[in-house]
């Protein structure tokens, strides 16, 4: 059999599943299956998923997708939105065992606090925190500053200031000043 003929034949999907694929239909969002909830310690894995996991997790995933769309995650490659953080916060606050408790932010959740003590996060890059408008203002202000510093009169002023600092030895004067201030502070503390 030629290689092309072997790769283009349809693959029977039933071989990959132990049960027919129609059996794996997910329930409607947030809907608990009809009937009485089984004992969580004695039921089958499928019943446990249908009665205890899916009714909580599926609405969380739907909320996650809505939030991701609101944060414009599907429009660019990079975003400040962290889906696992959102889902953790959502699941914690919508836990049926916490019905009457108030909303808790992600970094105030006890197990998150404990985790972050041992595993601190790197800061989010400024490029992800700024909006396009804020970033453009920042870039424009740096550009204007650069253009002003290139002006011949400003260059002359900066050279004069540098020369003045060197002649008057301003750095030594500042060091002496702060040494005196620190000495005064030590006397006051005693």
Automatic annotation (TrEMBL):
<dbReference type="InterPro" id="IPR043408">
    <property type="entry name" value="IQCK"/>
</dbReference>
<dbReference type="Pfam" id="PF00612">
    <property type="entry name" value="IQ"/>
</dbReference>
<protein>
    <submittedName>
        <fullName>IQCK protein</fullName>
    </submittedName>
</protein>
<dbReference type="InterPro" id="IPR000048">
    <property type="entry name" value="IQ_motif_EF-hand-BS"/>
</dbReference>
């Amino acid at each position: 059999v030629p290689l092309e003929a072997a790769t283009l034949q349809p693959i029977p999907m039933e071989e990959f599943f132990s049960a027919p694929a129609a059996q794996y239909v997910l329930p409607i969002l947030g809907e608990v299956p009809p009937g009485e909830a089984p004992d969580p310690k004695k039921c089958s894995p499928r019943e446990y998923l249908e009665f205890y996991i899916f009714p909580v997790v599926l609405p969380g995933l739907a909320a996650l997708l809505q939030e991701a769309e609101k944060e414009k995650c599907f429009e660019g490659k990079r975003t400040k939105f962290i889906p696992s953080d959102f889902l953790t916060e959502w699941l914690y606050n919508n836990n049926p065992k916490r019905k009457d408790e108030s909303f808790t932010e992600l970094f105030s959740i006890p197990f998150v606090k404990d985790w972050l003590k041992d595993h601190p996060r790197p800061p989010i890059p400024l490029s992800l925190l700024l909006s396009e408008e804020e970033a453009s203002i920042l870039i424009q202000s740096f550009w204007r500053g650069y253009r002003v510093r290139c002006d011949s009169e400003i260059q002359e002023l900066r050279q004069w200031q540098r020369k003045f600092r060197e002649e008057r030895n301003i750095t030594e004067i500042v060091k002496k000043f702060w040494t005196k201030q620190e000495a005064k502070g030590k006397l006051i503390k005693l």
